[in-house]
Write a structure and sequence with these properties.
Blueprint (H helix, E strand, L loop, with lengths): L1 E5 L3 H8 L6 E3 L2 H11 L4 H11 L4 E4 L5 H12 L5 E6 L2 H12 L4 E6 L2 H9 L4 E4 L1 H6 L4 H15 L4 E4 L5 H10 L3 E4 L1 H8 L2 H15 L4
Parallel strand pairs: 1-2, 1-8, 2-3, 3-4, 4-5, 5-6, 6-7, 7-8
Helix pairs in contact: 1-3, 4-5, 6-8, 8-9
């Protein structure tokens, strides 16, 4: 399973990249706005271009238009920023039309705000390179988000779609483990959760004990 980081914070991206495990980045308008605020200003396009240079893998940028023409126009503009850009289109009627158009032009599309398996199926049929079910947000409304991922993975396997499943809105390491067990292609994870994946209290306790024992035999 590939691991993406879900952020526009370039410090977090650099830190995660040092682990040597980072396969890509997902951003959205809210994350980019937070990064601009953290910097005390800046241009969204310049920040996004910087992110694309930090990570050789796919970097998702979301359109803000809600109509077909606007999505296609913005998608083409964003895709021109760097060769590793993937355009995020919402799973709406106009979003599906834009997905078909952009993917037909060779532009990778990440269908976002997916909340049920049939939406993922429609996105795959429209040519999306990725679909992003939001598991945390489904959990928030007392629905099991990972069950939705399981159904999407099964459907895609039945019909041999090349569309990859990105488990998004990840809230904890259990989401990541479940995604891997289900065979999801990608999990996109906030920086804080990535750090949780690395750490375990028993690892820290064991390491401290080994270091203490080794110190007894060193002069």
């Amino acid at each position: 399973m590939k691991l993406f980081i879900d952020t526009a914070n370039t410090d977090e991206i650099r830190a995660a990249a040092t682990l040597g495990l980072l396969d890509g980045v997902t951003t959205n308008p809210s994350l980019l706005a937070k990064e601009i605020a953290r910097r005390g200003g800046g241009e969204q396009e310049a920040i996004f271009k910087e992110i694309c240079e930090l990570v050789p893998g796919p970097v998702s940028a979301e359109v803000t238009a809600t109509d077909y023409e606007g999505m296609v126009r913005q998608g083409r503009e964003v895709a021109a920023i760097a060769s590793n850009v993937v355009v995020k289109c919402p799973l709406t009627e106009d979003g599906l039309r834009a997905t078909r158009t952009l993917s037909g032009e060779g532009i990778g599309v990440n269908a976002t705000l997916v909340f049920q398996p049939i939406q993922a199926l429609l996105a795959a049929k429209a040519g999306a390179a990725y679909v992003s079910p939001f598991v945390g947000r489904l959990d928030d409304i007392s629905t099991t988000g990972m069950a939705t991922v399981q159904e999407i993975v099964e459907i895609f396997s039945n019909y041999a779609f090349s569309t990859e499943v990105i488990v998004a809105s990840v809230r904890n390491p259990i989401h990541v483990v479940d995604a891997a067990r289900m065979g999801a292609d990608i999990a996109t994870i906030p920086y804080g959760v990535i750090m949780q994946l690395v750490k375990h209290p028993l690892t820290d306790i064991g390491l401290a004990r080994f270091v203490a024992d080794a110190a007894k035999y060193t002069s």
